[in-house]
Amino acid sequence: MAKEIERKFLVTDDSYRRLASAKKEIIQAYLSTVPEATVRVRVTDGKGFITVKGKNRGAVRNEWEYPVPEADAIEMIRCCAQSKIIDKTRYIVPACDSGLNWEVDEFHGEHNGLVVAEIELPDADADFPRPGFIGSEVTGDPAYYNSSLAGL
User: Cα separation of 63 and 150, whole Å?
Assistant: First the structure.
């Protein structure tokens, strides 16, 4: 079983943009709104993915993600979405020499102006560098779950 161990923070400035090693556009929607088993479909850079996530236990939860053809992902979003579509730009920012990356999401549309940074960790107690753009921690705050932002 796959585990996602992730910490989430608000972002205080746009310095992450100049530190980013990559940038991608993402659209996503949810097919299942049950907190114990959310199902997300995402399209990014011409590729589709379907992801099943279990309920959060602090910074840890079960997660399974699989590639699907882009056309299928778009059709699933169009026909089966149980949420609003989330549109965001993701910046990948290397976390110094730690081998970890920050994923900084700039939300568009209804949530324009919201910027959140996440870092996936090897274990819940792992230490990690915090660049200057990192603000208040919102790990575990349902208001900042993508599923909440999608109107679930």
Answer: 19
pLDDT in tens, 2-49: 778 899 999 999 999 999 999 999 999 999 978 888 999 999 999 999
Which string of b and e fits 106-133 if b means at least 16 CB within 10 Å? bbbeebeeebbbbbbbeeeeeeeebbeb
What is the set of active-site residues?
Answer: 30
Global pTM? 0.90
**Residue 134 burial by Cβ neighbours in a 10 Å radius (0-12, 13-18, 19+):** buried
Amino acid (one-letter) located at 59 = A
- How does pLDDT run across 102-123, given as a tens digit for each residue? 999 999 999 999 999 999 999 8
Separation CA 58–CA 77 (nearest Å): 28
Token representation of residue 36: 């114990």
Residue 36 per-residue DSSP state: T
CA 110 – CA 26 distance, rounded (Å):
15
Q: Is the torsion defined by CA of 87, 106, 109, 33 positive or negative?
A: positive
